[in-house]
């Protein structure tokens, strides 16, 4: 799967899996998935929501996010999650 | 049957409360797995009693304080029961008799690993499946010692007090998915330990219990099944004291 297709799939998973009130295409690629950045940008998700995303990502993409350290790398942004998945699959 | 088709794991299920709990779930239609640590003959007998009910049943030896062993246990249970654990009963426990000042570090670690770390490891292993299913039940066995202290059993009391705090914290973390986490605090229960007591010692203990007797394992199992049942859907983060009125908390 190329990077662009993977990014679209990640956004679709975020929107539908976490029941976000936002279209997948409207999810920014570079702002934090959880919490907000210095400009207040983010999806309004808290750290506990991350648990469900761990489960969704592990099931969909067959990668392991076993602890907080991996979670920090994976969930920095949509692009960070794409990088994480590609690295874990490599 | 209340638990028809549900998948249950009871840790420490070969004897006493764990065995009675596994059997009660099996009689209510659940597919039941348990793990055991020391007594192979008791485990075999317990497994046979579960299968005699017609239930799907599975047993495996596992040290719940060992992360790799817990991972292997949950993989095996998922394969044996046909899916992830939906109801987890953290019952496996170790104890050590001795005064704190004289307690060896290894004894402290052994009790804390089996009790507190084991509860953490098993809950962690169960949660991914429960979150994916958007529901689940975790019931942790604690003790009046967690609330009252117990001279001569500080590691045990500390581990159980830790499990009470773990129960409340985890209940807050996973409530949004309909997963409940509760504790059951049995007082003195009629198990092998009590059976081996001198009659006058047993009478002395029973005199301190308002209901005047020790519990039957089945009475503790009934409380665990309640917390795991749909009837307890709005109960989380609490401790149900099944102690004959000993603590009255």
Textual characterization of the structure:
The complex is a heterodimer of chains A (90) and B (249). Chain A is mainly α. Chain A has helices at 3-17, 49-61, 68-74, 78-89. Chain A has a single domain, classed as Orthogonal Bundle (Non-ribosomal Peptide Synthetase Peptidyl Carrier Protein, Chain A). In chain A, helix 1 packs across helix 2 and helix 1 crosses helix 4. The longest helix of chain A has 15 residues, at 3-17. Chain A starts with a helix and ends with a helix. Chain B has a single domain, classed as 3-Layer(aba) Sandwich (Rossmann fold), CATH 3.40.50.720. Chain B is 48% helix and 15% strand. In chain B, helix 1 (16-27) links the parallel strand 1 (7-11) and strand 2 (31-36). Chain B is globular, with a radius of gyration of 17 Å. The two termini of chain B are 32 Å apart. Classes of the chains: A mainly alpha (90), B alpha/beta (249). The interface between A and B is small, with 7 and 8 residues.
Question: What is the topological layout?
Answer:
The complex is a heterodimer of chains A (90) and B (249).
Chain A: H1 3-17, H2 49-61, H3 68-74, H4 78-89
Helix pairs in contact in A: 1-2, 1-4
Chain B: E1 7-11, H1 16-27, E2 31-36, H2 40-52, E3 57-61, H3 67-81, E4 87-90, H4 105-133, E5 136-141, H5 144-148, H6 154-174, E6 179-186, H7 192-195, H8 199-206, H9 217-228, E7 239-242
Parallel strand pairs in B: 1-2, 1-4, 2-3, 4-5, 5-6, 6-7
Helix pairs in contact in B: 1-2, 1-9, 3-4, 4-6
């Amino acid at each position: 799967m190329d990077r662009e297709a993977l990014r679209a799939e990640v956004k679709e998973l975020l929107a539908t899996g976490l029941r976000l009130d936002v279209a997948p295409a409207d999810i920014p690629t570079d702002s934090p998935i959880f919490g907000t950045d210095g400009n207040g940008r983010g999806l309004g998700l808290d750290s506990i929501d991350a648990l469900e995303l761990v489960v969704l990502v592990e099931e969909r993409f067959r990668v392991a996010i076993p602890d907080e350290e991996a979670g920090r790398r994976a969930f920095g942004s949509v692009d960070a999650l794409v990088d994480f998945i590609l690295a874990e699959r490599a | 049957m209340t638990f028809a088709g549900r998948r249950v794991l009871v840790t420490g299920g070969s004897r006493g409360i764990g065995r009675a709990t596994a059997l009660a779930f099996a009689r209510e239609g659940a597919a039941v797995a348990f793990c055991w640590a020391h007594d192979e003959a008791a485990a075999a007998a317990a497994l046979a009693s579960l299968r005699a009910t017609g239930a799907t049943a599975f047993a495996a030896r596992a040290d719940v304080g060992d992360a790799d062993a817990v991972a292997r246990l949950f993989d095996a249970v998922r394969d044996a029961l046909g899916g992830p654990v939906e109801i987890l009963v953290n019952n496996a426990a170790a104890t050590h008799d001795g005064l704190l000042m004289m307690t060896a570090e290894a004894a402290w670690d052994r009790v804390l690993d089996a009790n507190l770390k084991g509860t953490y490891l098993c809950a962690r292993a169960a949660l991914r499946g429960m979150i994916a299913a958007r529901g689940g039940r975790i019931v942790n066995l604690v003790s009046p010692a967690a609330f009252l202290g117990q001279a001569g059993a500080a590691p045990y009391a500390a581990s159980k007090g830790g499990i009470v705090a773990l129960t409340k914290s985890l209940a807050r973390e996973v409530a949004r998915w309909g997963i409940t986490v509760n504790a059951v605090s049995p007082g003195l229960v009629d198990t092998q330990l009590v059976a081996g007591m001198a009659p006058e010692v047993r009478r002395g203990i029973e005199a301190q219990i308002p209901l005047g007797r020790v519990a039957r394992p089945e009475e503790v199992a009934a409380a665990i099944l309640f917390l795991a049942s749909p009837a307890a859907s709005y109960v989380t983060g609490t401790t149900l004291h099944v102690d004959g009125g000993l603590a009255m908390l």
